[in-house]
Amino acid sequence: MLTFANYRLPTSALALLRIWFAMGALLLGVAPDPSWMTNYPASFWRPAPGIGQLWGGVPPLSVIVGLRVVLLLALVALLVGWRTRFTSILVGVAGMTLSSIAYGFGKIDHLTLVLWAMAIFMSWSGWGNRWSLDERASREVPVAAWPIALAAAWYATGLATAGIVKYWGGWLGFDDQATYAYVVEYTYLHKSYGPLAPMLVGIEVPWAWEILDWATVTLELSPIFLLLRPTLLARAIALLMLFHISNALVLDINFAIFTLAYLPVLLLLFDDAVLDRACTYGENLVKKVVHLRRVALSAGLILAFVSWRGGLHLGIGDFLIPISLPVFVWLVKRDRLRVDGVPVGSVRAADGSGTGVVEEARQLPEGVPLPAAQLQMRLATHSFWLRLR
Questions:
Q1: Distance between CA atoms of 296 and 312, rounded to whole angstroms?
Q2: In angstroms, rounded to a whole number, what is the distance separating the alpha carbons of residues 131 and 292?
Q3: What phi and psi, each to the nearest 5 degrees, are found at residue 83?
Q4: d(CA 91, CA 67)
Q5: CA distance 179 to 61
Q6: Global pTM exceeds 0.85
Q7: Engineered SS bond to 15: which of 115, 131, 200, 254, CB 3.0-4.6 Å?
Q8: Bridge-based pairing state of the strands 342-343 and 338-339
Q9: Mind listing the pLDDT tens digit for each residue in 161-217?
């Protein structure tokens, strides 16, 4: 039976998620820029059902520029955690409104729509309770798990529609291989392909391509059936992340922006203790390098300028932004990160005794509740950082 508690993340992980989401959105330039549409006649305006139909035609340039400014400033406010619930909703509403204009000529891009919905859902998650201006002003809100479950259901449904269309289109038939057809089409017709396409297009092995057809449909349909099993869903989403990277390498279809929405579910792969260690490590590492309060707003405004100019365009490198968060947590879990030669997970007591924070938590007497164990781990980690300084 599904309980929203299965989708719960600790407060520190929610804060890390908020920062990564806002930073990634700014770096990848997710704010649509439909200003070019003002150069075309009103007869081109054919919006799909939705917000776009509220406009009588392409809005004036001043409206488009104003919406972009609002969206970028809202992302900066989300990054530093100012009025987080309000700014999260503002990011979603401004993004959806801009997207409704950008899609007004009929071409609908689903990459950013998932992000705007996720921002609205997460406004109720409590992801602004830590590492934020709201925390300093004591504007904390209740922490909730249902926004993550709702975000998961949102893009699981979207992926399922893609899988159903492929199923109806005959992808599971053995007479032809749809994946190979796409590789041939992008390589020879569109002349737009990734670095692996020239090598793969020469592999004419029907059964191998048929396996890829079945794997594609299975990956897209599986999340909707795994919503009741969040841990299995997180593993399926991890495979989908690799699937999107392979699409970029072969077909040059960049879904890096879309995969930002995967991050809440991907973090469910790790238990609370690992997430707390990762967050403490990240927090103290930043403090060793810069004074966070002095540079956070300046960094956000710089990122907003980068986003205004279209964001970074690194090709396959765009995936480094969303994938770096789960990789970072995994490295902490495996004790692969070191500070001054000391593994993150091998913190010792002040007298040199002990076998590390994780082992200390495991050795607690029976009956000690998990929150107390986490508290002891945090205290030990902070003590370790004080000694480093």
A1: 20
A2: 9
A3: 45, 60
A4: 10
A5: 41
A6: no
A7: 131
A8: antiparallel
A9: 999 999 999 999 998 899 999 999 999 988 888 899 999 999 989 999 999 999 999
